[in-house]
Amino acid sequence: TIKMIKKIACIGAGYVGGPTMSVIAQKNPHIQVTVVDMNEARIEAWNDDDLSKLPIYEPGLDAVVGEARGRNLFFSTDVDRAIDEADMIFISVNTPTKAYGKGKGQAADLKFIELCARQIAAVAKSDKIVVEKSTLPVRTAQALKSILDNTGNGVNFCILSNPEFLAEGTAINDLHHPDRVLIGGEDAAAIQALVDVYASWVPKERILTTNLWSSELSKLVANAFLAQRVSSINSISELCEVTGANVDEVAKAVGQDSRIGPKFLKASVGFGGSCFQKDILNLVYIARSYNLHTVADYWEQVIILNDHQKTRFAERIIRTMYNTVNGKHIAFLGWAFKKDTNDSRESAAIYVADHLLEEEAHIVVYDPKVPAEQIYRDLDALGTRSPADNRRLVSVASDPLSALNDAHAVAILTEWDEFKSYDWREIKQRMKRPAFVFDGRKLLGRAELEALGYQYYAIGE
Ligand code: NAD
Ligand code: UGA
């Protein structure tokens, strides 16, 4: 039997664990929330007195942490102690695509999840509710339960699935006003305990409860549907470019149908982020493992189209610049996978840059939030060329004008608002002629840029 939750622990202080637990603590001052991570530098940053130094940039996060930290919100590296004290333990660790062995390149790597389960089992001396917050393959709860029950000290573990739907850049708003909170489980008392945590601020009708497998699967499906919309409109963007239709006009006309809806139909250089690709690959892998090859092929196309969109943008740049970018200075505005985040995991910018670097272009990157070492790390991780070559061909500017000085071309990779407010007349004076702009986010206006004398290319026009 489970009573009211007094102490929560969360393993994993990343993009999900950090913001999610901060809001749970903010809205439940009577619950002590401890977020733990084995990454000491990350925990240190979460505890920094200077709230601008938090490890994650997310609008509004500093205020929430400022309100709750030290009151009932704590960040620590003492994983065992947090597990020992908690009534409820969220697992919010990373679940990347497997990079080795069976399912390499598709399946989710669950080694961090399993390590958490074994640690919880080893430490727990009282009954625990264990909550899957990470995105997991359907039926992972079964494996977790088996590990916990077989390696534990005879205490009772109850597993819930509670996937997170926040998007980066809008995490705090998404957490404060979720479309829904999803809780899957078998034990009514445990489900109710978690419902009560969210009911502190989420209207009851937005808290859905299902069985475990529906909850686990719904998370993968939600991301697959979202990514599919982006790939659908991106596929149409290519058709627009050859037919004279404009993809924004098509998206508006199509999206105004209330059955289709207007959101998530913005054509782009391709979706990025740590999750869309990983979760669809995982869905494809699961479908194949049940021999559902037609289903798997269907969802795989979402990824194939997205890869095509990134390649096509890079090839368009090369073709337009007379098939020669060798030694040319191409300014990249934006490296993050979307605006208002410092996250660049799977960002389209990485793959577009890689393609241009194969042609020996010289890229100068400016991003308002992504630091230089992260940009080099992203490129080095591809393994396409040596770290020395990446540093020879790519430089990182700390202000936009020094990235744009003497550039042959500008490529817009992230839709940061500030790029719109730049003095594009002055920038033109600083650039080489003809001055090319390749707008991968449809951020600037064709009429304005052409009036200033730019050669302007935008996706889907
Ligand atoms: P992240 O990499 O930012 O954070 C994960 C953290 O877990 C890291 O700091 C890592 O050090 C820590 N960790 C891993 N194993 C550990 C262990 N055994 N003990 C202690 N700490 C450990 O990842 P994230 O972006 O927060 O994603 C976490 C999960 O949430 C993933 O499954 C992801 O699919 C899912 N998700 C992410 C988002 C998002 O916007 N990023 C949204 C919804 C769901
Ligand atoms: C996405 C989902 O929106 C969240 O609900 C989910 O919780 C999360 O994945 C996750 O599981 O990690 P996120 O990746 O943070 O959130 O950001 P999105 O706003 O979904 O954008 C993803 C990518 O798609 C970005 O590169 C974005 O630029 C691109 N995108 C999005 C488009 O190109 N066009 C659009 O219309 C929308």
TrEMBL record:
Catalysed reaction, written as an equation: UDP-alpha-D-glucose + 2 NAD(+) + H2O = UDP-alpha-D-glucuronate + 2 NADH + 3 H(+)
InterPro entries noted in UniProt: 6-PGluconate_DH-like_C_sf, NAD(P)-bd_dom_sf, UDP-Glc/GDP-Man, UDP-Glc/GDP-Man_DH_C, UDP-Glc/GDP-Man_DH_C_sf, UDP-Glc/GDP-Man_DH_dimer, UDP-Glc/GDP-Man_DH_N, UDPglc_DH_euk
Keywords: NAD, Oxidoreductase
SUPFAM superfamilies the UniProt entry points to: 6-phosphogluconate dehydrogenase C-terminal domain-like, NAD(P)-binding Rossmann-fold domains, UDP-glucose/GDP-mannose dehydrogenase C-terminal domain
Record has NAD as a keyword: yes
Residues binding substrate: 164-168, 219-223, 259, 266-272, 337-338, 441
Domain of life per record: Bacteria
Pathway: Nucleotide-sugar biosynthesis; UDP-alpha-D-glucuronate biosynthesis; UDP-alpha-D-glucuronate from UDP-alpha-D-glucose: step 1/1
NCBIfam families attached to this UniProt entry: NDP-sugDHase (TIGR03026)
Similarity comment text for this entry: Belongs to the UDP-glucose/GDP-mannose dehydrogenase family.
Biological function: Catalyzes the conversion of UDP-glucose into UDP-glucuronate, one of the precursors of teichuronic acid.
Matches recorded under PANTHER family: UDP-GLUCOSE 6-DEHYDROGENASE, UDP-GLUCOSE DEHYDROGENASE/UDP-MANNAC DEHYDROGENASE
Name of the protein in its database record: UDP-glucose 6-dehydrogenase
